[in-house]
Structure formats: structure tokens, C-alpha cells
Specification:
The protein has a two-stranded antiparallel ribbon. By secondary structure, the protein is mainly α. It has two domains: 37 residues; 191 residues, no CATH class. α8 packs parallel to α11, α9 crosses α10 and α10 packs parallel to α12. The protein contains 13 helices and two strands. β1 and β2 form a beta hairpin.
Length: 239
Amino acid sequence: MTQSPPLPFPQRLRDWIIQQRGKIAIILGWVVLLVAVRQYMTSSGLTFADLTRQLQTLLTGTWYGPLLYILIYLLRPLILFPASLLTILGGSIFGLGWGFVIVLVAGTLSAVIPYAAGRWFSGDPSQAALHPRIQGFIDLLRRNPFQAVLIMRLIYLPYDAVSLLAGSLRIGFLAFIAATAAGNLAGTLSFVGIGASIEGDLASGDLSLNPTILLFSGLILIFSIILSRMLNRRGNKNV
């Protein structure tokens, strides 16, 4: 067979940009955001500590602070920001009690965007060649969506990937969101507890840890890991 000549570099570059357009858009968005923040700090004569203090005041000192935090969490799948860091930040800012409630709501609602994207834009994943384990979860999702989503949340499969998969299979929204909320309970409590155990002034860096809250969140985390491994072994037998 005659090997086709390589494409010209401009065409290869254009094809690569088209293939990676989503990642490129996210990187450009981060660059624009960082430049805007830097420009705001320079024009206002603020240090990073001042900016952190302003953010804390905005989130805790206004009635719309929790709503703003939830909005930021909702946008997390679009900007690929780690959910664990936002969860710990929520515990540090809002405390263990209200922090758990606010972060649980925010984390559960953040699953809606990738679910909707999977429902509206993705094809049926059962038509593709998949790993037998993934195919097993697809079959379980169709038979018992609540149980399947709950297991996948508890064994810490990639959060947004589970939402995309559930949406692409067009499983019922109520079953999906209820299982997501139930599956988020232990993980949210443990990571919010880690954030709540951080005491002191975050802006100045004068921080300490509350050993009681840290021990509590550690025990919850260990329990959730043990539970996830038990469910993982059980899932290997059932899917």
C-alpha cells in the first residue's frame, strides 16, 4: 500500500486545535481570569492576603455569600477545578454545620451540568467498545439507576464522568440526583470537616488545626474508604 504524504503543518495544527478546542477554551478562560484578578489587585493596591480577606468577607458577611459559593461550585465542571479543594474551602469558610449543608447542596447540583451535557449531546455509550466493568455499570444503570449511581459515587469513580454516563443513558433525573446526594454524604462530611478544622486567619497564614474536628473528619474518611472498598469488591461480582 502507498503511504499517503503527511499533511502540511498548518492543516495539522488546525486539526489539532479543532480536536482540543474544549481544553484550549478552558486554558484561555483561566488565563483571562488570572489576568483580570492580577489587574484588579494592581489597580486597587491589594496584596494576596487582602484579596483573600475580601473573598472571605464576601462569602460570609453577605446574605448572598452562600449562593455565590454554590454558583462557583456549579461552574466547577466547566473550569475543571478540583471539587475536593472547593469542599475543603467551604468547610474552612462556613464551618462544619452550615458548611456541610451548603457544600452538599453545591456538590449535588454541580452534577447537573455534566448530566445535562451527556443527555443532550452524547451518543449511546453502549454502541462503543467499552471495558467489561463499564459495560456492567451501564447494564446496572438501565436496570436499577438509583443503585448504580449510588455505588459509583460511593466507590469514588470520576465524579463528572459518572454524571455524563448517566445523562447519555437518559436515566431518570430524580433517581440520578437522589443517588448523587446520598452518595455525597460521607465524602462531603469528611472534606468539610478537614476545612472546618483549620482555625485562624487564612489571609495572614496564622493557622492552626482543631484536633477534635480533624480526628472526626479522618474517621469519617476512613469509614468511607472501607465502605467504598467493600462495595467495589461487591460490584466486581455483580457487574
